[in-house]
TrEMBL record:
Keyword Endoplasmic reticulum: no
Protein name in the entry: Phospholipase_D-nuclease N-terminal
InterPro entries: CLS_N
Protein keywords: Cell membrane, Membrane, Transmembrane, Transmembrane helix
Pfam families in the cross-refs: PLDc_N (PF13396)
Compartments, as annotated in UniProt: Cell membrane
UniProt main location, coarse: membrane
One CC-aspect GO term: plasma membrane
Membrane-traversing stretches: 6-26, 38-56
Record membrane topology: Multi-pass membrane protein
Top-rank taxon, per record: Bacteria
Length: 73
């Protein structure tokens, strides 16, 4: 029974990690083709793709909050 929870937890972690990587990837300033290739790598090779993206992927998020109100402290 506990082994089942372990695998469910691992699958949830994988989905959250992939969604985070894909969100960060599509918010970057790279070309659409580059984003599509990275998305394919991350989806087809989940953990390995995310690790490769973390080391060699696009850097920087260019699209921040949509209004200056979000930046007020």
């Amino acid at each position: 029974m506990q082994t089942t929870y372990f695998w469910i937890g691992l699958a949830v972690l994988l989905v959250v990690l992939d969604l985070w990587v894909i969100n960060s990837l599509w918010r970057s300033d790279n070309t659409r083709g580059s984003k599509a290739r990275w998305t394919a790598v991350v989806v087809l090779l989940p953990y390995v793709g995310a690790a490769i993206w973390a080391v060699a992927g696009p850097r920087g998020v260019t699209k921040g909050p949509s209004s200056p109100e979000h930046s007020k402290g």
